[in-house]
Automatic annotation (TrEMBL):
<dbReference type="InterPro" id="IPR001452">
    <property type="entry name" value="SH3_domain"/>
</dbReference>
<feature type="domain" description="SH3">
    <location>
        <begin position="298"/>
        <end position="357"/>
    </location>
</feature>
<dbReference type="InterPro" id="IPR031160">
    <property type="entry name" value="F_BAR_dom"/>
</dbReference>
<dbReference type="Pfam" id="PF00611">
    <property type="entry name" value="FCH"/>
</dbReference>
<keyword id="KW-0175">Coiled coil</keyword>
<dbReference type="InterPro" id="IPR036028">
    <property type="entry name" value="SH3-like_dom_sf"/>
</dbReference>
<keyword id="KW-0472">Membrane</keyword>
<keyword id="KW-0963">Cytoplasm</keyword>
<comment type="function">
    <text>Plays a role in endocytosis and regulates internalization of plasma membrane proteins. Overexpression impairs internalization of SLC2A1/GLUT1 and TRPV4 and increases the levels of SLC2A1/GLUT1 and TRPV4 at the cell membrane. Inhibits the TRPV4 calcium channel activity.</text>
</comment>
<dbReference type="GO" id="GO:0030100">
    <property type="term" value="P:regulation of endocytosis"/>
</dbReference>
<dbReference type="Pfam" id="PF00018">
    <property type="entry name" value="SH3_1"/>
</dbReference>
<comment type="subunit">
    <text>Homodimer. May form heterooligomers with other PACSINs. Interacts (via SH3 domain) with DNM1, SYNJ1 and WASL. Interacts with TRPV4.</text>
</comment>
<dbReference type="GO" id="GO:0097320">
    <property type="term" value="P:plasma membrane tubulation"/>
</dbReference>
<protein>
    <submittedName>
        <fullName>Uncharacterized protein</fullName>
    </submittedName>
</protein>
<dbReference type="InterPro" id="IPR027267">
    <property type="entry name" value="AH/BAR_dom_sf"/>
</dbReference>
<dbReference type="GO" id="GO:0005543">
    <property type="term" value="F:phospholipid binding"/>
</dbReference>
<keyword id="KW-0597">Phosphoprotein</keyword>
Length: 357
């Protein structure tokens, strides 16, 4: 464990790191919200692009209803993803920002009050320890300096003993210097060991005071972690479509519609409408009859559109599923009726696209 002064700075910075983590989380899931909104818009546009071409396309019967169900399902899913977008922004994002505001109090000159409290606590606990470490370092340096001096004198004294050029007086002086240097080393060693003992005796108290502040920091961090865990779980709940009843309902209904595709019924309808089962007007002798006006209904019969229909010719009537209008002429031999919409638009339309109200 690093016991040098200032070793607590990473723990102190954790408060500001937590604040930044909240900011990053909000930014991240706002971007996810944009993805959900764009997906919802794309689904909605897709579901609205095909119904017209479906009704005027080659499909019919239960197969066409199944295809139309894909379109309506997409529209419902678009609403669901739009609500997910709103939840991520208005619920989850606002919750994190509110928690940030309540738990991180900015100082006038920068930083946070919570950061200052932890840093002040650590500095107060470490102040006596820092002084003792400085005293210890000073004693260590003095001991090493004395030891180095003794080492150099011992080297010179050993070299002088075997050298005939060094006179007796100088050798004696070197021996005296060596003795004094050794005594200084012993003195510095004793002082160094004494200071070291003081530091080691104080270490448990230092650790106790530092751990007290550290535990306080841990408690604050625990609250942050627990909150962010709940925030992430809330985001998960909003994004998890696997447990969403609305999604289950959409796909359940879609699956049931697909399973209801009945090839026999569709083939029967085609046979009776466009095949040998349809009423056949076999050639027969026809007397001359003056032309009669079409069978115009007085006031008309109210009908409701089952499907969307876009007129392909200028004399055809266009309408959307669910619209109501008047049938003013019965179905002709080609399966067309004449109708009037909004009291002014008149035209032909497929008889099997409506039902009588």
């Amino acid at each position: 464990v690093d016991c040098s002064p200032g070793n607590y700075q990473r723990t102190v910075r954790r408060t500001e790191d937590s604040f930044q983590a909240c900011t990053d989380m909000v930014s991240c899931f706002q971007e996810r919200a944009r993805v959900e909104r764009q997906y919802a818009q794309a689904l909605s546009e897709w579901s609205q692009n095909y119904p017209v071409s479906l009704c005027s396309g080659p499909l019919y019967g239960s197969l066409m209803k199944a295809w139309q169900c894909f379109m309506s399902s997409a529209d419902r899913l678009a609403s669901l993803h739009a609500s997910m977008c709103r939840a991520l922004v208005s619920e989850d994002g606002d919750r994190v920002r509110t928690w940030q505001k309540d738990n991180f109090h900015k100082k006038v000159f920068g930083g946070f009050k919570e950061t200052q409290e932890i840093e002040t606590g650590f500095a107060r606990a470490q102040k006596p320890w820092t002084k003792k470490l400085k005293k210890l370092d000073k004693a260590r340096q003095a001991f090493h300096k004395a030891s180095r001096r003794e080492y150099l004198i011992r080297e010179r004294e050993a070299h002088a003993q075997g050298n005939p050029d060094v006179n007796i007086d100088k050798q004696k002086k070197l021996q005296e210097d060596l003795q004094l240097a050794s005594q200084e080393v012993d003195k510095m060693r004793s002082r160094y060991e004494k200071v070291l003992e003081e530091v080691n005796r104080y270490a448990p108290r230092y650790m106790e005071e530092m751990e007290s502040v550290f535990d306080q920091s841990q408690d604050e961090e625990k609250k942050r972690i627990m909150f962010l865990k709940q925030a992430l779980l809330s985001i998960h709940d909003h994004l998890d479509v696997t447990t969403n009843e609305s999604v289950r309902s959409v796909y359940s209904e879609l699956h049931n519609t697909l399973m209801s595709i009945d090839e026999q019924e569709d083939l029967r309808w085609w046979k009776n409408t466009h095949g040998p089962g349809m009423p056949t007007d076999w050639p027969h002798f026809q007397e001359y009859n003056p032309e009669k006006k079409p069978n115009v209904m007085i006031g008309g019969v109210k009908v409701r559109a089952l499907y969307d229909y876009v007129g392909q010719e200028t004399d055809e009537l266009s309408f959307k599923a669910g619209e109501e209008f008047l049938k003013i002429e019965d179905e002709d031999d080609q399966g067309w009726c004449r109708g009037m919409k909004d009291g002014q638009w008149e035209g032909l339309y497929p008889a099997n696209y409506v039902e009588v109200v």
